[in-house]
Every structure is written in C-alpha cells, then in structure tokens.
Amino acid sequence: MKKVILVRYGEIILKGLNRPVFEDKLMSNIKKSLYGLGKISVTRSQARIYIEPENESYDFDEAVSRLTKVFGIVSVSIVWKIDSDFEEIKKYSLQMINQYINELSRKTGRNAARVISADIPGSAAFKVEAKRGDKKFPMQSPEICMELGGYLLENIPALRVDVNSPDFILYVEVRESTYIYCDIIPAFGGLPVGTNGKAMLLLSGGIDSPVAGWMMAKRGMEIEAVHFYSYPYTSERAKEKVISLARILAQYCNRIKLHIVPFTDIQLEINDKCPQEHLTIIMRRAMMMISERIAEKSRAQALITGESLGQVASQTMQSLAVTNAVVEMPVFRPLIGMDKNEVIEIARKIGTFETSVLPYEDCCTVFVAKHPKTRPRLREIEEHEAVLNLEELMEIAVNNTETMVIGE
Amino acid sequence: MKHEVYLDNSATTRQYDEVISLMADIASNKYGNPSSLHTRGIEAEKIIRSARETIASTLRADPGEIIFTSGGTEANNLAIRGYLDANPRAGRHLITTKIEHPSVLEVYRHLESQGYRVDYLDVDENGHIVIEQLKEKICSETAIISVILVNNETGTIQNIEDIAAARDALNPGTVIHADAVQAYGKIRIMPSRTGIDLLSISYHKIHGPMGVGALYASKRIKLKPLLFGGGQESLMRSGTENVPGIAGFGLAARMTFEKIDENFEKVASLKRRFIEGLASTDIAHHVNSPQDALPYIINIAFENVRAEVLLHHLEQKGIYVSTGSACSSHKKNRSHVLSSMNIPPQLIDGSVRFSLSGDNNDEEMDLTVKALEDIIPVININRGKRSGRK
Question: Within 10 Å of residue A35's Cβ, how many Cβ atoms?
Fold first, then answer.
C-alpha cells in the first residue's frame, strides 16, 4: 500500500486541442506549490493527477492545504494505492474504514446529535462506490460494491448501510492499480494561474482589492500588484500591511510582483490645485494612468480594480466612466456587481480579511473631501487636471517605483 | 547620518551602555539559575539580592517588600487582583480613575464583569482627580483605590497625600495602589511615608531593560500570586528569575537615582525652552499638559493637523514622538485620557506627546521646534482646499 494524493481538475477537461497546455501549467503550478515539502513524483492519467511522495513521512495535511489553493484543482483526496486484487482491496478497505470511523467519532464528539463510534453497533452509515476503469478486472462495479460492502458490514460492527444519506462513502477506483479513499476535499476550481495572460492589480490594503485580484487569478490570470504609497501621510505599517496581503495572495498565485509607487507628491499637487470635491476622482485617474504605465513595462495586458458599483462616490457609474477614460487597457472589475457582505465573505474564505481590517491610516482616509462629487463630468475633470504638472510627476513616480517579488 | 532626536522616552528609553554590558556579562558568565544549589546558582541568587536591595533603597522600603515581575502590566495586575484574591472580605467596591493606563483600566473592567462595583473618578481640565468626589465615593465596602501617579499621556501628577488623607479619614482599611511606572526614577516616592500600600514600577522607562518591573507591596498587605509554580519571589511570582534583566534593572535604578535631581532640573529647563520656542512661532497649538505636570511629558495639540501624519513627518526628520490616538478616522481610538480632560475631539486628533529624558539637550528642543515650523503648514488639513462650486 502506498499513500498518494489524487487531484481532480474540472473545467480544463472541457478544453479541446489546448488541453495539454492547461494540464502542463497545472502540473507545474502543483510542483511549485509543494516545493520544499520533500521529493514527489507527479503523474497524469485519465484527467487526474497523482502525487506520490518518495518518503512515507511526507506532510500530507500541509500538501493538501496548499493544493486546495492551486487554481484549476476541483478537489483533492488522500488515497491508498494498492494492487488491483480483490483480496487486497478487502484487506485495506477494512483497515481504512476502521481508521476512518475513529476519526469521525473524534470529530463528532460525545455531545453530537448523533454519536458515531466504533463501540456503538450500526452508528456509522456508509456505502461503497466502485468504478472499474480497468475492464480486465474480473468483477463489475456493482458486484464490487455488493461484495465489498457485505464483507465490511460483517467485519465492522459499527457499520450500517445507507445508500441515500450515508455518513461517508468508501470510494474504490479500479485502474491499473486500485485507489481507495473516503474523503473528497473541495478546492476552488478555476483555471491554472498563467494560462490567461497577466494583469496589474491596484492593491490598496482594503477589503476589496485583494478579493478582486484573487477572483481574476482564479480565472488563470497571472497577477502583479501596484500600491500607491503616501508616506509620510501614511505609516510604514500601511506598506507592511500591503506586503502581508500580497503574501496571502501569493499562496494562490505562486508569486506576486509588487510595485510600490511613491504617490505623495502627486497627491499634494492635486490637493493644492484642484477643488476639494474632485480630489478623489482625479487621484483615481492618476492611479489608473500610472498603473497602466507600469503594466505596459511588465507586459501585463489589463488592469484589475476592486471597485463595486455605487459603493463610494468614486465608484458611481459616472465616476467609473471618468476614471476609465484615462486608460486604454481593459479594466477588470470582478466585484462590480457584488455587495460588501459578499466580498467580505470571500475575503474571510481566502484569508485576507483579518489583514485588510487592520486600522492603519491609508491615503484614502487622509486626503478626503467631505462631499465628493458623485456625478463628475469628464470635461470638467479634464479642465481641472490641465493645471496640474501631472506628466512630470507621474514619470518621476514610475521611475522611483520600488518593485519586490513576494512568495518565492 | 542625520541627528536622531528621540522624544518618546515614556514609551521606552535607550538602555544605559553600562546596563547593557552588565547584562551581557551576566548572560555569558554568570548564567546560573538562582534556585540551583551549586556555586553558579548562589552567584545568581546574590545578583538578585543585591538588585532587590538597590530597588528597595530607592523607595525607602524593605527588600522583602519588592516582588520582581515581567514589567509594569504584571505589577498592576498582581497588585489589584492579587490583593482582592487574598482578601475576599475586603469589600466589593473599587475606585480608580478615568485616566489610568490600560493595564489598570482593563483589570477593573474585568473585575466589574466578576461582580465588583467600580467607580471611575472624573478628572478636571488639568487631569487631576477631584478629592471631593473621591471622598463621596469611599465607603465601608471600598477595598482598593488605584491611581496613576504620573499620567503617561500628559504627565499630570496626582496628589497622593490628599488621596491617602481621604482614605485615612473615611475608611482606613482601604488599600491604595499607585501606578508609578512613569513617576519612578523621575520624582522621589516613599510609599510607606505617603500611605501607598502597593506601587508598580517598570524598568525600561528609566534606561533599563524591557521585560522587568516590580511591585512594591507593603509588609502589612497580604497578596495571592497570579502565577503558581516553583515558588520564586517568596511564592508571589513563580518562574525562573530573569537574572540579567533584574541586575540591569538594579544598575539602571542606581544610575537614575544618582542623577534624579540633576535630571529633573535639566528636563524642566528643556520643557521651558520647548514651550517658549513653540510660543514664539506662528504654530496654532495648545499645551494639554498642565503647568505643574512632570516636565518629562509634554502633550501638545496642534490645530488642523492629524497627529499620525505629523508623527511620520517628524520621523522623516529623525525626530521620534508618539500620539495618543493611532488613527483619527476611528473615533473609538481617541485618547481616553484627553477625552476625560474635556479636550475637544478635533484637538485630540492633533495631539502629540513629546517625552523627554536626561539624555536630551537644548539643541534637540530647538531642532524640534524648527521641524514643527516646517511641517505644520505643509500638513494643515485645510491646505489648498477650495471649492470648485460656483
């Protein structure tokens, strides 16, 4: 018997001739994500990926936790690989289920509505699901289910059969070797990062932008991030916070290049020369222009923002149109139709929420107008911008941008 | 390298070089556990005894009245909770002030949840408690009164003699706990002569190491420990002693007390210079610290400025200060001390604490005033703001 990890991927198998491209990328992302855990061999067969560690002491739990963050993967199981021989299947299934019942009873505890325990006859409802991929195997799938189920039922008193709502399922997949397992751990699906171009994420340090980046990475985009840094109007901790957020995102995207743009001089210029109610929108436009330039330098083909329609004054339909008018690249706003609660839910799930809510003064809270315009007109904004020395300041900002690679 | 001006000495101080070498020497050469029976152990025990004697002498106390702790927070917790735990019949009523350090305030909040009745005394616009109010509150049920001797944000000094007199008159059984973390080493405190029963001190505020503090507990006070274990510190504080830290603490105390009057005079003159310097500029400001405050702590409100923004601008010029409130956009983070003194919220948002030590000098005060003159107009929140509306 050998313990291996079985990885299932979904959407990729729908691809036609491009499929190997996606599969190769997924394999390479898997290898990157498991880097440092020990030697493994990664193989692919029949729309599955198998990860076999060389060493038995391999940290399977850590590996699973990392794999569930690799986009393209639909689910993961820790499986036992055994010979395709019915006596072997019986022997190891018995052992696996005995272990699994103990795990279940630990998880449910004594005070659960229904206690599952090896000591309580019939307390664990189960069924067997068999798949015969290797047609040379002498028994058919239903036959395997019946024979194996009957054998287990006889030998483990805690078991009872319930095909409609079992507490767990024993999966038996007979291929060249046979794989048995009880757990299927869901992952996020999506497409392997790196199969869908590269985009530049405007990462502020709030709740929204990391979620926006995560959602686009989930569709296979490689992500770089740009942060606008207004020291000494904000604290150095604000920068540390953005780096921590990028580090969390990097768990999903292999690694992230983070560009930190010194933005203070531009903010002061806008603050000094433009009317208060337009500060935010002009600042947003400057951010978009700079992001596009950095994106071009990095060969990214799009921008990503965390904007959500109507959330704040700079995210009304009119404001978005005015902001959008300064760039030529497509701007992806994956949160555009989401409520704050929905965004927070994802932020919690992916692990960025706790970091996002750390209270450091960021540029948006220092340079703010009491009553920003919610319906700016493009021509008016452009007139105000004309008095600014933006071109020169933006060039200085881009040239002084500090770039770091996070997650390597 | 630009000259560094460190004006955050109430947060922590730079350790004396002598303290650092002493601790390094002990850590590498006298590394025994004081509980060990061999020579190394006895050597360590002697180091602690000698530090204890030094600390006791600075407070005119008996060495048996000093309990070493991990710092001011633990000393405050041990004083209050240790006393109530050992004296369940002392009463269910407690008194403290609205301007305590969190390591006292949060203990009382916890005790409230445990069923104690707690009165939090108001302060006047100078940060002083009103003795009349204290007198109204003391009753036969009052177990303990905790007062911060020198407030950490404003430097306000409470008149402990008046507090003790009120206690003596109304309920002599009530115990007085003074949080002297900011006062120790700056003014002379003699707890047994002023009626203080419990007194907390910490060492990194006087150029000693972090992670060491002490509680003075008068002989007549019975305490129960917070930590149980090997029974160190006469059963009051289990855990292997931080021998190098305690030795460093002893030396820092000795060095500080040798210069206590000299330093006080020096810092008082630095404060005058700074306040006068500021007054000679156009900077709109208010001094939050009262005139009779401890000169080591100067709290100043700048109009139309956000304190944290000012802090980072000063930092860029190598000047380190601190703010009472971390982020002005979150109301609940506004300093409870300044709020209690009825300072308007917009001034609290622009309040900065400059805290001095005997290591600062005239030139640094002038540099700071100059830096403020440069920075304040630049960061004014109304800077450049105009309306485009017609």
Answer: 12
